[in-house]
Write a structure and sequence with these properties.
The complex is a heterodimer of chains A (105) and B (122). With 105 residues, chain A is an all-beta fold. In chain A, 0% of the residues lie in helices and 49% in strands. In chain A, β9 (84-89) and β10 form a beta hairpin. The termini of chain A are far apart. The model of chain A has no long low-confidence stretch (mean pLDDT 97). Chain B is an all-beta fold. Chain B contains no helices and eleven strands. The chains are: A mainly beta (105), B mainly beta (122). Chains A and B meet through β4, β5 and β10 of A and β5 and β10 of B.
Chain lengths: 105, 122
């Protein structure tokens, strides 16, 4: 299953609402996860089952979608949110990641 | 506190072998599914292999037949034996504790370590 993220990069300002799309090549129900990665660091697990926040993740992050179309939304971008975001499907092997979306200032 | 400590990376010649280790603490290792994820320099994330809590193993196509995932419960350690390495295997390798949900055998990946770098070059 291929995951296509869009855009591949975006520029935004602190306080902006940011939306990242992830499209699957076929239906994956809600078996979709989101990660945040900052330079030189391991990815951080943000959201599972398309819309459930991992413990400790700020509520400004939200996820939605099912089937083939998914969205990660940051309601009010904070300085620490500038990073690269990846979606990942866990519906079937081989497990796959999207190509990533870099959120820049 | 959950801790994952990867080790064993380094420089290896094409065709060579390397064994990565991930020593864990802070949770009941034997009851968790564990995974290796890698990231080539400047590239995205790639799933490599999973060892389920039931002992089943899964591999990505590019590593099938060359890599072997295993665990030693007595040492709280997950391994990745990598043979016949090529330049395409050059990457940072992360160990992950799987977060299971629904009916999936894999769930999500909680990567809390710093990773270990593997460089395949002559």
């Amino acid at each position: 299953i291929q995951l296509t993220q869009s855009p591949s990069s975006l520029s935004a300002s602190v306080g902006d609402r940011v939306t990242i799309s992830c499209r699957a090549s076929r239906s994956i129900s809600t078996y979709l996860n989101w990660y945040q990665q900052k330079p030189g660091k391991a990815p951080k697990f943000l959201i599972y089952a398309a819309s459930t926040l991992q413990s400790g993740v700020p509520s400004r992050f939200s996820g939605s979608g099912s089937g083939t179309d998914f969205t990660l939304t940051i309601s009010s971008l904070q300085p620490e949110d500038f990073a690269t975001y990846y979606c990942q499907q866990t519906y079937t092997s081989p497990l796959t990641f999207g190509g990533g979306t870099k959120v820049e200032i | 506190e959950v801790q994952l400590l990867e080790s064993g990376g380094g420089l290896v010649q094409p065709g060579g072998s390397l064994r990565l280790s991930c020593t864990v603490s802070g949770f009941a290792f034997s009851t968790y599914t564990m995974t290796w994820v890698r990231q080539a320099p400047g590239k995205g994330l790639e799933w490599v292999s999973t060892f389920t809590r039931g002992g089943d193993t899964y591999y990505a196509d590019p590593v099938k037949g060359r890599f072997t995932i295993s665990r030693d419960i007595s040492k709280n350690t997950l391994y990745l034996q990598m043979n016949t390495l090529g330049a395409e295997d050059t990457a940072m390798y992360y160990c992950a504790q799987n977060f299971l949900y629904g009916t999936t055998w894999a769930g999500g990946f909680d990567m809390r370590g710093q990773g270990t770098m593997v460089t395949v070059s002559s």
